[in-house]
Structures are given as C-alpha cells and as structure tokens.
Write a structure and sequence with these properties.
303 residues; elongated; five-stranded parallel sheet
Length: 303
C-alpha cells in the first residue's frame, strides 16, 4: 500500500477518494525532525505553501528510499528545491489548473477594496467614524491594468478586468501571447510607466531579487495602485512603504509577504495597505479542484 502524507492538509473529498482507492493517507502536519523522519516512510508528500522542501529534507527522503513524488497543491513550486529533487529521481508536480480563478477573484476584490476604500472604511466605521468625504474613490472602468506575468492566473484576471471596462497591458518573460488579442504586450518599463494598477503574477526568483524595487517605483505614475497576490519577495516591502509614504503609490494590496506570517508592523498597520493572509487559493471550489487534480497526479505516478 502506498503511503501519502498531506502535510498541509487536503480537501476532505479528495482524502476520502484516495482512501477508497486503497492509499494510506496521513493528514497530520509535521515539522523539523519529525518531518525528516516521516519522509523516509512515505511514497508521496503533498504540500501547500506552509511546508518547505529543501535539499536537506530531500537527502533524508533518499535515505529512506521510498519517496517518489512531491506534489505542490497549488501553482508555485518555489518552496521546493525541485531541480535537485528531480535530479534524485523524485518527481515534483503542481496543480496549475485548479486555483487560477480563485486567485484572480481575490486580486479583483482587492482592486475594488482599494479603489472604493472598502478595506479601511470597514475598520473606521467600527470605531464610530463617519468619513464619507474622505472616502471619495475611483472607478475601475477606463483604467489601465498592468499584469506582470501572463500565465493562467493573470489571464483570468485579464478576462474579469476586461468585463469591468479596464484596458489591459502585460509583460511576460516568454514574450507576447496570442491567447488574448485584447491585451497588449509591452516592455517592463512601459508597463511601469503606463499602468494605473499593477497586479503581479510571477514566482520569486531569489537570485534576481524583488521584481519591484526603488528603480521600478520611480518609473511608475504618481498615485498608482499595487496588487500583490503572487509570492512574497516579488515586491521589496521597504521600498513599497517609501513609495506609499511619498504618494508615488496611492494604495497597495498584499496577500503574500516576505515573511509569513508577516512580522513587519509597518506593513500590517499601514492605512494605505489592504491585507489578507495568503488566501488566494482558499475557496471551497478551488480546494476541491486542487484535490481532484492531485488525485490525477497520484494515479499517474503511483497507480
């Protein structure tokens, strides 16, 4: 019997289906030495963003001689040393199709929250304040949305934003895409200069550092908006704070952070930042789809 560890949990329906198919499923969470011991005893590990699988943990798994498959239940695999794992014969897979709409909806939700002061008025009204005059907002229709990266999530954001009457430009490492002719491919610098809103949808490349830093903020329009639902580290948080305080960036929305949970008090107390605790894929529908796609991967490699 194949043993599967869902170290960051798994959709209940998917868990039941795997058990029905004859797999031994452990949904407990392990850290440190406990996890190092556990990876020697399992054939597959399923993780989300909470668990990091680095070279030392992979080396421990190799000692056990059982681990064959690592599944990232989500899109990004930057919390796994995937190249090293594949070199050692341990396959790394993700579930890229399942959470795109969920993350895209959160990005759009944050855009509304910033444009109409929803995130902050909800707080101030609970404190007995009636700041009607202070909360004059803007409409999304007619504004230019710049998408950094143009994969599944960004394309889902684009479709929704087009429906709201926004103009879409994008930049992508792989160049121009033919999928959505209504969206215009531009250079990074042109995107920074032209966008009223910038929404980020790229992985964090440690060797390159933040995608948005001081030079990038300097190129942006005064009073623009940042939406960050990709990966912590893609935006330099200290430079973002400076841009907010100077007015270069009017408001920002963050679902991901350099450290999680974030300990940066300047970030989580700033009145111009809308915050959510890395919940991009946290919908019932997305988790159910991730569960089903995870089962497909397991059946492909451990059937």
């Amino acid at each position: 019997m194949y043993k599967i560890l869902a170290n960051d949990g798994i959709d209940k329906g998917a868990e039941s289906k795997l058990i029905e198919l004859g797999y031994d499923v452990d949904t407990n969470h392990y850290d440190g030495e406990e996890l190092s011991k556990k990876v020697k005893e399992i054939d597959c590990i399923i993780i989300r963003s909470a668990t990091k699988i680095r070279k030392p943990l992979i080396d421990e798994a190799i000692k056990g001689g059982r681990l064959k498959l690592i599944i990232r239940a989500g899109v990004g695999i930057d919390n796994i040393d995937h190249e090293y794992s594949n070199e050692q014969g341990i396959v790394v897979r993700n579930t890229p199709k399942s959470s795109s709409d969920a993350v895209a909806e959160l990005a759009i939700g944050h855009m509304f929250a910033l444009a109409r002061h929803i995130y902050i008025s909800n707080v101030t009204m609970r404190n007995g304040q009636w700041n009607k005059k202070a909360y004059s907002g803007i409409e999304l229709a007619g504004k230019t949305l710049g998408l950094v990266g143009f994969g599944r999530i960004a394309q889902s954001v684009a479709k929704k934003a087009i429906g709201l009457g926004m103009n879409i430009i994008y930049t992508d490492l792989f160049g121009e895409s033919n999928f959505m002719p209504k969206c215009k491919f531009v250079s990074k610098n042109d995107l920074l200069k032209q966008s009223d809103f910038i929404s980020l949808h790229i992985p964090f490349a440690k060797e390159l550092g933040p995608y948005l830093g001081k030079e990038e903020f300097d190129l942006m329009k005064d009073g623009m908006y940042i939406i960050q639902t990709s990966r912590g580290g893609v935006v330099n948080e200290n430079e973002l704070l400076k841009a907010l305080d100077s007015g270069k960036v009017k408001k920002a929305a963050l679902d991901v952070f350099e450290d999680e949970p974030t300990k940066n008090e300047l970030i989580y107390t700033h009145e111009s930042i809308s915050l959510t605790p890395h919940i991009g894929a946290s919908t019932k529908e997305a988790q159910a789809r991730i569960g089903l796609e995870t089962i497909e991967v397991i059946l492909e490699y451990l059937s």
